[in-house]
Design goal:
Blueprint (H helix, E strand, L loop, with lengths): L5 E6 L3 H12 L2 E6 L11 E4 L2 E4 L8 H10 L10 E3 L4 E4 L5 E4 L3 H12 L3 H22 L13 H8 L1 H4 L5 H8 L3 H8 L21 H6 L2 E3 L4 H13 L3 E3 L4 E7 L2 E7 L2 E4 L2 E4 L3 H8 L7 H4 L6 E9 L9 E4 L4 H11 L8 E4 L14 E9 L7 H20 L7 E7 L1 H8 L31 E3 L10 H14 L2
Parallel strand pairs: 1-2, 1-13, 2-9, 6-15, 13-19
Antiparallel strand pairs: 3-4, 5-8, 6-7, 10-11, 11-12, 14-17, 14-18, 15-16, 16-17
Helix pairs in contact: 1-10, 1-16, 3-4, 4-5, 7-8
The protein binds flavin-adenine dinucleotide (FAD).
Length: about 500
Amino acid sequence: MKNFDKTAIVIGSGVGGLATAVRLARKGYAVKVFEANESYGGKATKIEKDGFFWGFGPSLFTFPELLDELFKTCGRNPRHYYKYHRIDPICNYFYPDGTRLSAFADKEKFAAEIETKTGEPRQHVLQHLKRIGKVYELTKDIFLFNSVHKLKTYLTKKSLTALFQLPLIGIDKNMNRANEQQFCDKRVVHLFNRYATYNGSDPYLAPSTLNVIAHPEYNRGGYFLDGGMPDLSRALYQLATELGVEFHFNSFVEKIIVENGEAKGVMVHGIEHKVDVVVSNMDVVYSYRKLMPEQDAPLRIIEHPKSTSALIFYWGIKREFPELDLHNIFFSANYKEEFNHLTHLKTIYHDPTVYVFISKKYQPRHAPDGCENWFTLINVPHDAGQNWDKLIAEARKNIIVKLSTELGVDVESLIVSETLNSPKTIEAKTLSYLGALYGNASNDKYSAFLRHPNFSSKIKNLYFCGGSVHPGGGVPLCLLSAKIIDELIV
Ligand SMILES: Cc1cc2nc3c(=O)[nH]c(=O)nc-3n(C[C@H](O)[C@H](O)[C@H](O)COP(=O)(O)OP(=O)(O)OC[C@H]3O[C@@H](n4cnc5c(N)ncnc54)[C@H](O)[C@@H]3O)c2cc1C
């Protein structure tokens, strides 16, 4: 029997919580995970209904090497746990003027496709991809792989070089402005503006540094996990249990116990559990407000405007569409107005950009023969007390009209199964504050510094992981939050 001399508790089993539990167990900690839900995964869980399968949230898999590295660090062969494939095309784009283009995995082919379909010189696309690749290399060590809140992060030669190249990094203009300067065609601007939505931001406000979000997809590749994204949670859970992590489901943590400025444990079902280290994977706003309301919260961070949320219809469709691929985007005719509605009016535009993800295209088991599993998502504001029933009913109608027009069929008549998630249900199921998908919005140039650190500067032995803290939302960044904690806990 293993003899652990250090103990840790992780609150929540989202991607960040699972990865942190794995890393602490590998370090020799006896780890317990308390999860409010009946199973693991948080936003990266699964939905099964009427013979169809969908991922609850994430669909695109990038930076697979981060997941592989975690398994290898634990002495495991990742291929014994999960498999993935490079996807091609990465995404199909449908524009209201009838233009259809495919983002091919091969950069030259993608740039040529853009030139053929829109007239945008291919060199503009290739230059853009090269530039964002350079920005990624310059910034990754400061903003992604290390804590931006530790001085030592800035004291490397690479970090100092990056700081001196701030104009190239592009914090002085917004994404849309930079893309308008780079591209002549509005459709191409839209395509690259879209990457702001990957962390719930607005391309008309977010600093152009965030154009870097397109880098993994185009410069390194988009991937599909054989079982879909819920397979990532399943694989992490399997690894964690093999390493001895104890999971307690249906176990809502009521309190983080803090004594003399030190985290001492948690309270679950009225019972105290004392440990050496506490890691919260719960949204950081609720970590403060619900679990330790008596502690001073860093108000500038937790009161920062939140990211957008999503409205998702998980549809079972009784037909197959060869013109659709794994990822499909149906653009709004007025992208700027769509974001005006999202960010400023806090409502849903009548002509939203619609994302349809169909994992059946790569995994036949995900829908019955002759059918497809449509994960149909639009960006919506986080919850601000809107009349969601009314907004959802209108949005559903508008989405169906849009898709029916584009595809030339009555989509409504093909829906044989329907499940829905909205900001309210996302908040209820994952305890994400206001149902925001990615914690704080990244709509201003200091956003990277306005995410909570992965540690508490006031409470010893208290750490934070997951999408609401540094380095940000999205599966790869949640994995990195766990890695940073691993390095912080000596
Ligand atoms: C619709 C949607 C689409 C997305 N698309 C993508 C995508 O394509 N690519 C991508 O990379 N990312 C995407 N994301 C974001 C990605 O899913 C998240 O960033 C990531 O999964 C969040 O993981 P997390 O570690 O923050 O934990 P969460 O998933 O937020 O889970 C937190 C867990 O903690 C538990 N918990 C909370 N409080 C307590 C408590 N007090 N006691 C016990 N348990 C508690 C919750 O029940 C939950 O299980 C998407 C998200 C959504 C919702």
